Amino acid sequence: MDSKYKTGLFRFILMLGAVVMALLASQADNRTVQALLWIGALWLLASATLHELSQRWPARAPWQLVPTLLLASLVWLEPLQFATWLWAYAILLMLPQPRWVVVLNVLLAISSWWQVQAHLSTEQGVLSALVLASLMLLGLARVQHYRPLWRGVSDRVRLIPGARLWTVSQLLDDIPRESARSDREGTYAELVLLRTRHRHCWALSQTLSEAIQPFEHCYRIDGRTLATLLTSRNREHARQRREALLAKLRHLHQSRVVPLDYPLTLAAECQALARQDAPVVIIEREVAHA
Predict the structure, then answer these.
(1) Given this model, what pLDDT does residue 57 score?
(2) What is the pLDDT of residues 9-53, one digit of tens each?
(3) Which has more confidence, 208 or 284?
(4) Which residue has better confidence, 137 or 161?
(5) Closest by CA position to 222, among listed 281, 262, 273
């Protein structure tokens, strides 16, 4: 199944969950429970909306803590009403998350079961504990299957399906390729490094992708650093393109421009970008290829 159809289905499930929680909230008598259900509905709605806008899904805390803490709070407040929600802990364990969040989920699941079993007979309490433990073990087993996939997300060539945002590993492959092409075709190519705040990195990558040529790409080096390889007819054309590009980019703190005929290494240039005081540094010296 194509990724865009999976994305649409996932977004639909989030929206459906938001509607269900909103209906439960409208019927709840306990004001605290009602508030928690409304928070859950808004969180699901916001997640579906943000997922549609950016097609990104965070793989780290603290966003996973929202459903975990909401679930635990609801079970603690109304154990009988939300007793069947205990099984959701097994699903939460399958989400991409740090190990300490997994431990927290297990502890909260045990605590929630303890709240529920106080209203059950001994046999029912033991049976519910066995079922919950079995489901959570299945969830943990499923995590081991998905963990290599999550670990490989950062190594993907294209970070987001359909977007012109590529990884640093692809940039390392493209630099020598574009340098050789520049020599062969007599064009002028340069590496442009851009540094911004972490919260502006995604917006900057979108603007950068729209400003460059269709055959050029945007690369994400880390949470604050982006790069692109500009190919121009000559040095003067490169200067014009560079100035026009930098003028379009908002929230840009520093930039560093290095021609590909300069003996550069990406790691050294990124370190120099992080250390530089000037907002723009342009390396002018040209060195012929060996």
Answers:
(1) 47
(2) 777 888 888 899 999 999 988 899 999 999 999 988 887 776 554
(3) 208
(4) 137
(5) 273
